[in-house]
Amino acid sequence: MTESQAKAEIADIRIQLNSLIRTMRNVADGVEHDFYGVGNEICARSIRDVAGKYDTVLRVLNSINVSDAFERINGKKR
User: What is the pLDDT of residues 5-48, one digit of tens each?
Assistant: First the structure.
């Protein structure tokens, strides 16, 4: 894998994670507002908690310097 391919792959993962997080939050909103009296608040909170964990993964992913990581993997030094 080249560095540009690695950057493209990371960018694609970021896009997919963002989409998943938005979808989960939309589902949580729907559950909270559309399903009264069936544990909707607990269910919505659980979904939001999972979305929050994906937020953490996204933050870590965003903190990765792909160029540095690529050089380390390939044994190169700056």
Answer: 888 999 999 999 999 999 999 999 999 998 877 789 999 999 99
Query: Does residue 67 contact residue 10 with C-beta atoms inside 8 Å?
Result: no
Contact 76, 39 (CB under 8 A): no
CB 62 within 8 A of CB 54: no
- The answer to whether 53 touches 17, Cβ cutoff 8 Å, is no
CB 42 within 8 A of CB 16: no
Residue with tokens 């160029």: 67
DSSP letters along 15-56, please?
Answer: HHHHHHHHHHHHHHHHHHHH-TTSSHHHHHHHHHHHHHHHHH
